[in-house]
Amino acid sequence: MKCTSCDKLSFYIICKTCQKQLLVPNFYKKELEKDFFVYSFYDYKDLEDLIQSKYHFYGDRVFNILAKLSFTKFASNFEFTHPILAIPIDDHTRHDFSQTAILAKHLKSTFIKPVFNTLKASNIVKYAGKNLEFRQKNQRKFIYSGETNCDVILVDDVITTGSTILEAKKLLKKQGVNVLFAITLCCFLS
Fold this sequence. Notes:
The protein is an alpha/beta fold. About 30% of the residues lie in helices and about 25% in strands. It has a six-stranded mixed beta sheet with strand order 1-2-8-7-3-4, with helices on both faces. A two-stranded antiparallel ribbon has the order 5-6. The longest helix has 19 residues, at about 60-75. Belongs to the ComF/GntX family. This is DNA utilization protein GntX.
């Protein structure tokens, strides 16, 4: 197959050279509310084509590579006083796989336990390219069926306005879940 970045022949959808040269993660921090932060590894503009792979059959391979380079590395360096849960936001499989489930899977470590199919949106509206006003008028209306009285990390693929993460955090708080922070693959920096 060909590397999606450089078109050279490769055993991987993104060749090892491109992984090392083009996909080195950074660490971005954005405060959504007082003392509540979202951490991201890439600027959306640098990953736009790769993020769009979530709409294609090969997207799971792309997301596994990106998650291994960023989420796995984060998890291996993360320590806490007790194990916490990683909850992917709306880890449905509408496109043959769930990008948020893939990302959460790569957080598995001594201190982080991913849990799946617990935070689902009951309103299946597409937010891609929509502004904050649209997102606020068309909330996801999450339903939570997981553990309570626990500490969690929220996992999503992209943060634009932060409305999805804040809506999920609000619901989880009502359910007795303490959201420590959120982590996303990429964010909009501009």
